[in-house]
Amino acid sequence: MSEQVPLSGGVTGDVTDVVIVGSGFAGLGAAVKLDEAGRRDFVILEKGDTLGGTWRDNTYPGCACDVESHLYSFSFRQNPNWTRTFARQPEIRAYLEDVADHYRLRDRIRYGVTVTGAEWDGTHWDVRTADGSTIRARFVIWGTGALHEPSVPEIEGLDRFTGAAFHSAQWDHSHDLTGKRVAVIGTGASAIQFVPAIAPQVASLTLFQRTAPWVLPKPDRPISERARKLFARFPLLQKLNRTALYWRHEALVGGFLNPKYMKLVERFGRSYLDRKFAGDPELKAKVTPNFTIGCKRILMSNDYYPALRRDNVAVETDKIVRITETGVVTADGREHEVDTIIFGTGFKVADGMSQVAVTGRDGVKLGDVWRDGIEALLGTTVAGFPNLFLIVGPNTGLGHSSMVYMIESQVNYIVEAMAVTDLHRARAIDTVRDRQDAYNDAIQRKLDRSVWSQGGCASWYLDEHGKNRTLWPDYTFNFRKRTRKIDPADHELLV
């Protein structure tokens, strides 16, 4: 291993082989596979004081995964002890802790280290941190994912509000909601989980809805102790269950790629609406989506619709125009007096690396390259930025299945890219610009025909230019095929 010298902030390393940024699924998965490949000279930089990424940061009431636990986990570290079909946040966080313990990764993680920039000097990356330290690394793996920078809308007067205001990803657990008048702004995946969890506790809850989401019932249930014992004793049973789940999810892809095939799913969604809002046509009209199902993220919940029918819950569809010291004013001139504002408005997906200054070959800035939209080859490498790898990069997101599957595909690709670089005794591997452009042109052509572009909605999948820079428009096994081996035509080796 390289010679290690102490740096400020508790980070060590004069020159290290690999810097991994982030300790969620992406960062830990990369660390496991690097170690297996014999690349043990790496450090994981984590801005928080514990590991877990998204599953550390999001601790709001009701927080859970919307992909089954047996699929939303590493293939190489299956967990027979999941207690529910869809695990809650504490259990997923504990799973990641187990991964770190099992693979002895804890001493590789440096906590409280925020990466502020990285610059390529021709042979190495100089990775800068908030405390002024610099770590030199041959390779950098960016594993922070897309869901880590909360998005709070700019609303006039928000800074004057005298009550408590926070984003669901920065939940204020010290603020007791008992008896409070609460405004919830946003109806995304987080909101449909925490609204039912807090509704029985608060005096009143006003849900400010810009767009009604499609919500389907969630087939969630406890996993019996007997089933858990069987999975532990016969791992093949769990593998078969995981395989069945995988193919069931893949069956949805055809509908996303051809909107007319979503009609059957939409019929099921409308039937669910009919059942849950029988006898309340006014509220049903408010919460009925006006776009093709799948155009925005499909949400799953058994208790969201019932929560909206509570006597202390109201759904407000008029636009918010400003916030006062004591409430929220809508376009009809009414002021809704509240004590607490909770934002369920998602994350800054398209510009997740916007606060980090990354400089590649010839002084080119990543921010400049991405000025008209974020792009990468296979969501993993960017032309002009040698030895820099993204996990959950542009157009790797999913609307139907487990991101852990995509992460594992990318990690395998990254490990092979490093091996190819070493095999040819090159100092770096870069991406051919023409190949990257052709790849992204093909991705966008496919997306243009998909439900995400043809479904009649505006979603967080789209950037400011109306381009979908978020989702992978194909089956995940095709992504796995594309990332199984390095295509020599896609890359150039710098010797």
Structural overview:
This protein is α/β, with parallel strands linked by helices. It contains 15 helices and 20 strands. Strands 1, 2, 3, 4, 5, 6, 17 and 18 form an eight-stranded mixed sheet that branches. A five-stranded parallel sheet has the order 7-16-8-9-12. β8 (181-185), α4 and β9 (204-208) form a beta-alpha-beta unit. The model is unreliable at 1-13 (pLDDT under 50).
What are the defining features of this structure?
single chain, alpha/beta, eight-stranded mixed beta sheet, five-stranded parallel beta sheet, 29% helix
The largest pleated sheet is described as:
8 strands, mixed
* C-alpha geometry: globular
For the secondary structure, the number of strands is: 20
Radius of gyration: 23 Å
- The average pLDDT is 93
Strand percentage: 15-25%
Counting H and I runs of at least 4 residues, what is the number of helices?
A: 15
Structure classification: alpha/beta
Instruction: Enumerate the spans where pLDDT stays under 50 for 5 or more consecutive residues.
Output: 1-13
Distance between the termini: 22 Å
Estimate percent helicity: 25-40%
